[in-house]
Write the structure tokens for this entry.
Amino acid sequence: MFSEGQLVFTGFFVVGFIILMVFSYRKDLKLHRKYYKGSIFILIGFIIFIFLLFLLKTYLHPE
């Protein structure tokens, strides 16, 4: 399906991308704590909303 070179490139790309994301996040950690305080509640709200949509879909269209 994929050549060996493509798989190697994908592996290096993923590892490099993750490393860059970790360094960037750690660099901006003070700003994240200051400006994004309480954002975890928004994430929890979205997860609950999607779960409720799934329950509603399952309840209204049982197949």
